[in-house]
């Protein structure tokens, strides 16, 4: 299977190159840049030195489609919406990492992303790629829309609860924190060193573009879902997301029953590891890996449920899940190229 990466000089693209280079069944055929054609990838990312030996190529959809089986678009929202239909028309199968093909309602997309919605036919044919809970046959998909980093952590945390209708859907609060690499490679006035070192910031209050994505999926799982409350914070670390999710549970359930439900729900999911009752994951425990580690707790005094989920935003939150989706698309072992343990400490 030959793969190409577009947006190769971004953090998501670099992570795709790292993962695809050691994938047992995929060959990294080419990587593409809109600004650095002809340069080596080492010029942008010395850590990839000796790994590829190839130069960055221009983005030519026809050429890419004629030479490869699958292309990853690790490009910004608003760019993917232009690029992906061209790749699809040229016959490529595509896994897009941006937010452009996640929201099925174009008006909602325009409202939250403040950009023109993508081509309607391509949008409606896109399969939402939360891999553990795919709702369509990935082997048939021409386009998989990779979930956002926060939605991945939040939805994996909420799925057993919502699918079993255990919590009051109106009571859900998702309190999320991310490392700075979530903002991409380019430094901004919000993310540069003096702003983020030794600092903690809340951002996009009641305005985060992942809010409707989470609501869209939750309402597919449970028709009683209303608007959620979602807060996002930047913390001074490079990678990692933690979501702490609160919901009102039913009378009479025990903490052990809830943990058992989570462990059963993810029994067959290699990449979701449910912790023993009373133990909680930290972001470093999934660093550099495709794992999502989860804990669920129940305060039997108040019936409040608390779920803690952690992922690496660049792996399970982006490029790792994209490779996991490629594995599903081509019907190969889901863990191929991804089954390694996190880097620790
Ligand atoms: N960082 C994260 O944790 C996550 C990111 N995402 C999403 O994945 C995508 C990539 O993110 P990330 O790698 O962090 O972003 P970066 O900003 O680090 O990289 C994006 C890359 O896109 C390319 N690009 C920019 N403008 C254009 C254009 N007009 N045409 C073609 N290519 C362009 C650039 O590469 P070049 O100049 O070489 O073309 C750039 O390096 C984004 O949509 C992001 O929202 C999703 C989940 C998590
Ligand atoms: C730290 C930081 O700024 N993180 C970004 C994550 C962006 C992202 O992944 O965007 P899409 O999924 O919408 O493409 C944010 O919160 O907007």
From TrEMBL:
Pathway given in the UniProt record: Amino-acid biosynthesis; L-arginine biosynthesis; N(2)-acetyl-L-ornithine from L-glutamate: step 3/4
Domain of life: Bacteria
KW Repressor (keyword) present: no
Protein localization: Cytoplasm
Entry-linked SUPFAM superfamilies: Glyceraldehyde-3-phosphate dehydrogenase-like, C-terminal domain, NAD(P)-binding Rossmann-fold domains
SMART domains named in the record: Semialdhyde_dh
EC code(s) of this entry: 1.2.1.38
Cellular component per GO, a single term: cytoplasm
Family (UniProt): Belongs to the NAGSA dehydrogenase family. Type 1 subfamily.
Stated role: Catalyzes the NADPH-dependent reduction of N-acetyl-5-glutamyl phosphate to yield N-acetyl-L-glutamate 5-semialdehyde.
Official protein name in the record: N-acetyl-gamma-glutamyl-phosphate reductase
Encoding gene, per UniProt annotation: argC
């Amino acid at each position: 299977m030959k793969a190409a990466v577009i947006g190769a000089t971004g953090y998501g693209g670099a992570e795709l190159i790292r993962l695809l280079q050691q994938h047992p069944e995929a060959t990294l055929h080419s990587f593409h840049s809109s600004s650095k054609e002809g340069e080596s990838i080492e010029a942008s990312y010395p850590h990839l030195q000796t790994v590829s030996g190839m130069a960055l190529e221009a983005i030519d959809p026809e050429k890419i489609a004629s030479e490869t089986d699958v292309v990853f678009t690790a490009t910004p929202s608003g760019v993917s919406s232009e690029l992906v239909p061209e790749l699809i028309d040229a016959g490529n199968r595509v896994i897009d990492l941006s937010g452009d093909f996640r929201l099925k309602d174009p008006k909602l997309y325009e409202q939250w992303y403040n950009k023109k919605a993508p081509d309607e036919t391509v949008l409606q044919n896109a399969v939402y790629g939360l891999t553990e809970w795919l709702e369509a046959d990935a082997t048939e998909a021409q386009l998989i829309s990779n979930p956002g980093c926060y939605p991945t952590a939040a939805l994996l945390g909420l799925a057993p609860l919502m699918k079993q209708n255990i919590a009051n859907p109106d009571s859900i609060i998702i309190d999320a924190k991310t490392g700075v690499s979530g903002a991409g490679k380019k430094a901004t006035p919000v993310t540069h060193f003096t702003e983020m070192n030794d600092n903690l910031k809340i951002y996009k209050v009641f305005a985060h573009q992942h809010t409707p994505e989470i609501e869209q999926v939750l309402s597919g799982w449970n028709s009683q879902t209303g608007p959620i409350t979602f807060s996002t914070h930047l913390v001074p670390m490079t990678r990692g997301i933690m979501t702490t999710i609160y919901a009102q549970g039913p009378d009479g359930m025990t903490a052990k029953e809830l943990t058992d439900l989570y462990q059963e729900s993810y029994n067959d999911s290699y990449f979701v590891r449910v912790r023993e009752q009373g133990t909680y994951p930290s972001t470093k425990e999934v660093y550099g890996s495709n794992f999502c580690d989860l804990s669920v707790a129940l305060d039997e005094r108040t019936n409040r449920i608390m779920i803690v989920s952690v992922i690496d935003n660049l792996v399970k939150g982006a490029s790792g899940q994209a490779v996991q989706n490629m594995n599903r698309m081509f019907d190969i072992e889901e863990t191929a190229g991804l089954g390694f343990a996190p880097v620790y400490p």
